[in-house]
């Protein structure tokens, strides 16, 4: 199956530029033709004027209208995937178009969810415990605040759960909860057509970053993203898939080979971390700097997230342990 075959299945992709080079290319919004007319929309892209213009141009190119959208499903609570959903509602004529998402990610997207001023102090305290210097913590706080300009929150996120089937004109899309990249990430799978809408769960050329997720009160260990991701990706590997429709970049095939390479990539990273810890205890920040010596300070959240996530996997196997007796925390080879 190729992308051209998707037209016959009523699936249309709109690529929307993003300002994040780490994302793996433009973000994709998918329009799926419904049985009784109209469209199901899977992800919406960013909420910036440039992204909204690209989305509008995509609708025009396909000869479709915003008022044909009957429901929006958001894969996860990152700004490049839900940011324009409010714009689509408004172009449709009001908030009557329902937006669906997993409850675990709903607070990120909802008007009722916590604001950055509530989240920032908890994240700053956690980063400091992981050895991040105060000036970098301050930089990341400003960076995090700026990220909210890429999206507008939504008045309501209706819950959607594992196992629900979204029936469209040609497809029966099964909702699959695949936590890892975020706690509430959702994918869609047509078992008969062997079509998998993976959003950021599986990308062809980029490893999905396992981002730090703190609990409601800032607690550490609330969600261990890479442990969850490795479990979810094993579930995907077991599925029969002819074509993957990712969140970034064009569709691709060969999902098992990509998954195997990705799992091997994480194993090599963990071996390198163990090698670094043989020389003595280090903070997560020190380990991240050793893994990415040329990374910019603005990349510190991504590199620290990747480092901590791999350390959590190693902790679960008893290969490393964390010394919390004093701050900043240090990791030791077990």
From TrEMBL:
Coiled-coil features, chain-numbered ranges? none
The record's annotation in Pfam families points to: Lactamase_B
Residue ranges constituting the Metallo-beta-lactamase domain according to the UniProt record:
26-248
Among InterPro entries, the record links this protein to: Metallo-B-lactamas (IPR001279), RibonucZ/Hydroxyglut_hydro (IPR036866), Sec-metab_biosynth-thioest (IPR050662), WH-like_DNA-bd_sf (IPR036388)
Gene3D superfamilies tied to this protein: Ribonuclease Z/Hydroxyacylglutathione hydrolase-like, Winged helix-like DNA-binding domain superfamily/Winged helix DNA-binding domain
Q: Would you tell me the protein name for this molecule?
A: Beta-lactamase domain protein
What is the organism field in this record?
Anaeromyxobacter dehalogenans (strain ATCC BAA-258 / DSM 21875 / 2CP-1)
Organism lineage reads as:
Bacteria, Pseudomonadati, Myxococcota, Myxococcia, Myxococcales
